[in-house]
Amino acid sequence: MNAYSVGMFVSMVCYLTISAFVSRKIKDANDFYVAGKNAPTYLIAGSMIASLLGTGLFMADAAMCYEGNFSSVIIMIGILVSAYIVGAVFFGRYLRRSNVLTIPEFFEKRFCSSALKNLASVIAVITTAAYLLSILQGIGTLMSAVTGVNYNVCIIISLSVFTTITIASGSQGVLITDTLMALVFTGALVVSVFFITYKFGGWYHAVGLIASNPLSSDIISWGGKLGSLYDTGVQNLGWGIVYGLVWMSVGMVSPWQASRYLMAKNEHTVIRSAPISAFFIFILEFLAGMAAVMVNIANPYLKDSSYVMIWASMNLLPKVLGVVLLTGILAAGISSATTYLSLIGSTIANDMIQHGSRGSVRIGRLSMAAVSGIVLMLAIANPPSIRWFMHLGGSIIACAWMPVAIASIFSRRVTKAGAYYGMLVGFLSCFCLKIFINIKNIELPVYLEPSLIGMLCNMIVLIVVSSLSNVTEEEKRAREYLLRIPETELASCEVSKTLRWVRGSIVVGVVIMFVLLIFWVLPYLHYKYMA
Amino acid sequence: MGELLVSIFIGFWLIGTGVISYFGLKKEFQKEKEGRDG
Fold it and tell me: A489: distance to nearest CA of chain B, Å?
């Protein structure tokens, strides 16, 4: 057993101990599924960061940056993080106000339609399971590469850990362990990145080494390395913008993000968590992307680029720091997995089988165990491409849910029939196109991305069917209820404090722009053209 | 110089969404307060 294995083992025991402690506080379905609707700002922000940044950041996005698509990834993330601010203000607080346990239940309550809830539940389970599978594959690949233990043994161990955490402590435990894990991987990444750059003579010198070498300078140029994604810089940037918009939709309404709002103490907490999540997600992606780019200085010939951060941990960092970074990457994977598994259990128990009550917790736990078993079998079959599964889950949510979710708040004319058929067509068009393109191995231009087509189909059907049907009185009342701010949320000191936080999100934009200018653009241009 | 445009685009995108969110929220709070007062 090497030092990396010991670090991972110890961290998993710590998370299990914490979840065992938290599990004693679970009294009812409200505690188990939505953390008693009492979570403070820092836990909501921590959990949002941890659930988004999993192996996708440390393996898939880092691999893209290493291969030469830094600019595409950073523009995608820049657009994505705006979802936290827009999503919290224009969807999250209405969701919190609806007083439900799951998002499919929100659709049912808003449109007075159990058919819509059933459809949303099926979509939630399929997409979340696809995402969970990609995370498990990532964790298995990481653990196997680091410890030398068989891939199947690694996924069994990691699955046992995150399933135990989720089943034992529910959302309450997931929120706490997620936030702790976010702290672990944030700290590990920040220290490691600065250590890696120190090894190459400091941040600016490392950027200079990349920029001044004709073989590597394209890696962090605006258009990226031509041929690694598309053949022109404009297409590469187009990819970043298109995927940014798709992932922005995902960030606004996806169950693994928006469900955090249901756990918030109040609507102010929902809004205040937004700028924190947006800032940290962007900075962590920027640092991980830059670290992956800089690995090119030491080793530009990695066989499998998804191992780039693992290689950096084991070859560029002192052993102790390497252990910390790999433990952090593992924490990122496990924290995302706990979120997805708790969501699946919650959706099956509350939306597909029964409502509320103590029995719901038992059913939720059994569902989580059953889904874990299915995902384990699929992961052992080891379908290729972590990124593909991740994008499949995200794309389907964007196509099926986003237009309906936004219309449910802001449209007076949308009807239950419009919402149902819009969601169905959005889901089917995206799912079928994605599968067809993958089987036939077709390469579409970036503007014909199936997610965009799916969202467009959803919107068209939503508008056409809604115009052919009528809004009922109970749907009208349900929307009016959502639009009325509860008295408890109107204390003037809390309102002005929350408005200050939203002004803070404008500052986040300014800070991020200066971070990019100071740490990427100016040193890159200086070394490329002037040095 | 495309790098400069990319970072300015990201910055302004985030500032823009922040501004829209701020005024959207402020307007809603004001409307609700006026509705209750009036």
Answer: 10
Integer Cα distance of A359 and A365 in angstroms? 10
C-beta separation of A48 from A257 below 8 A = yes
User: E strands, A169-272, where?
Assistant: none
Distance CA A519, CA A16 (A): 38
Q: What are the distances in angstroms from CA A168 to CA A29, A37, A73, A152, A342?
A: 13, 18, 36, 24, 10
Distance CA A229, CA A69 (A): 7
Nearest to A125 by CA among A375, A344, A337: A344
Mutate to test the interface with A, among B20, B21, B37 (most CBs of A within 10 A): B21
Q: In whole angstroms, what is the distance from residue A368 CA to residue A353 CA?
A: 13
Is residue A24 over pLDDT 90?
no
Whether the Cβ atoms of residue A412 and residue A479 lie closer than 8 Å to each other: yes
Residues whose CB is less than 8 angstroms from the CB of residue A303 and which lie 6 or more positions away in sequence, other chains included = none
**A64-83 mean pLDDT:** 95
Helical H segments across A354-385, by residue range: 357-381
- Three-state DSSP at A222 gives coil
Residues in chain B: 38
Q: Considering only A98-107, A130-139, A151-160, A421-430, which range has the smallest mean pLDDT?
A: A130-139
Q: Are A89 and A502 in contact (CB under 8 A)?
A: yes
**Residue indicated by tokens 């941890």:** A50
ipTM associated with this complex: 0.95
Does A85 contact B21 at a Cβ distance shorter than 8 Å? yes
Per residue in A463-521, pLDDT (tens digit) is: 999 999 999 999 999 999 999 998 888 888 999 999 999 999 999 999 999 999 999 99
Q: What is the mean pLDDT of chain A?
A: 90
Closest-CA distance, B1 to chain A, in angstroms, reads 8
Per residue in A315-356, pLDDT (tens digit) is: 999 988 889 888 888 888 888 888 889 889 888 888 888 655
Query: Helix A473-483 to helix A103-111 angle, to the nearest 10 degrees?
Result: 130
Taking Cα atoms as reference points, which of A248, A250, A236, A246 lies closest to residue A446? A236
**Closest CB to B3 among A78, A512, A525:** A525
